[in-house]
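Weekly puzzle thread! Below is a chain. First person to post its structure in token form gets bragging rights.
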Amino acid sequence: MVNQNTDFQAKNGISTKDVRNRLLDAAEKLFSERGFADTSVRDITAEANCNVAAVNYHFGSKENLYTDVWRHHLLLLRDNQLASIEKVMSENQGTPALEDLLKSFAEAFIGSLGDETGSNRLLKLMIREMLDKHLPPNMFADEVINPTLSAMQKALLKTCPDLQESRTALIVFSIIGQLIHAVRIKTMIGQKDKWNLPIFDLAEMVDHIIKFSAGGIRACTGEKIK
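Winning reply:
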């Protein structure tokens, strides 16, 4: 089956990379919409317009395909976060204004997580994974949380020398929690015609989170809040 599938692709000018990418895109769409358990290999291959053997050939199993869908997002999220921290630190000789550091971090995080339509697949995948876990243990922590947390903690300590190191992890987790919740709210009330609520401006909310968090951080250092 695998050899026949590969021969068919070669005869019809279809690269294995193209098939692999189609499978990843189809799987991401269906996993985010239906969840892992309610998405079959046949559903994925039908969406990707290829045969069932292609999943085994490229990924070995549905579980491995699910993991690779996540790994693509996690590495992008991690790299965006680390690049944003490095950029703001280098542009300010290692001691940026606290608001500038938080803004850089928040914008990189939101840019990876959400969009103005509130339909981002990664957020949906996150919610489904929290409710029904299928990722390898510690994958999220090892590939995203630990390197990002370490870099942000170091940046906070350089930006706020009077901040206790023991507080830095709690601060970073608090900021991330606020940002995830903001994107989630945007998803929930994005269709404003169905809700008797004011228009939710994600950019305005992120600006509020930055100012609110900066005030909290300064309170932790004993600095007078302006």
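Puzzle host: Confirmed. Bonus trivia for everyone else. The domain at 2-58 is CATH 1.10.10.60 (Arc Repressor Mutant, subunit A).
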